[in-house]
Amino acid sequence: MSIKTDIDRKKFPEHVAIIMDGNGRWAQERSLPRSAGHKQGVMALRDTVRAAVELGIKVLTVYSFSSENWSRPQAEIKYLFKLLERFVRQDVAELHSHSIRIKIIGQRSNLTRKLVEMLEYCEDLTKDNTGMTLVVAFNYGARNEMTSAVKALAQRVADGELNPNEITEQHIAAHMGTSGIPDPDLLIRTSGEQRLSNFLLWQCAYTEFVFVREHWPAFNKDVLESTIEEFRTRDRRYGGLATSTG
Ligand code: IPE
Ligand code: IPE
Ligand code: MG
User: pTM of the entire structure?
Assistant: First the structure.
């Protein structure tokens, strides 16, 4: 039976975040260049977006380039950026036709003007869509995001708009790139690594983590469904007591 026909909405993740890892290893295992893994990774992303829509996921967040990925060889960075540009050119119209709203989080100040305009184009085109929200973390680092939020709040205090004693968690959340988007329910990392690598540190306070062995290019709807099944066995207590406890 498919997950969709067996839905217990309370136990279904509305927001799924994915650390798409293992492109290089997938390629290496096939004696291919790392670039082939990244290319195949884009296909897995396409399939996963489609699967997420079919499953009724409301928000899908994907980690596509981290603020630490600048330490990779220039040629690899260049190729990853080329794939992003190609994805925008080839896929955004289709995502738009499925009423998907695209939101891009991450730093923009160190990107080229052309790239920033492309990202803005995707967001503008799809901003009124009411289907699934696709959040793309590009040139993203959680510590950088939190630092920007602290700076913005400090500026408001300096301008006399805000009293430091009145700063709440909601103020901080409102200054994150993810403002207005609910926290992830489920975080998946492919390729067997069990770490966050500077992804959504604030937002994942109570997220359930599922790590899968598959490399990202081999990810598909079946693997996604298996992570949701695993999620549904979890008891989310938020510091309280088990739901079965009377
Ligand atoms: C994920 O795959 C893609 C990016 C981080 C951009 P990797 O490129 O990290 O692949 P591995 O982890 O080296 O196998
Ligand atoms: C995390 O993967 C970043 C993305 C998937 C975009 P990395 O491959 O960069 O993470 P580390 O270096 O293994 O922690
Ligand atoms: Mg990696």
Answer: 0.95
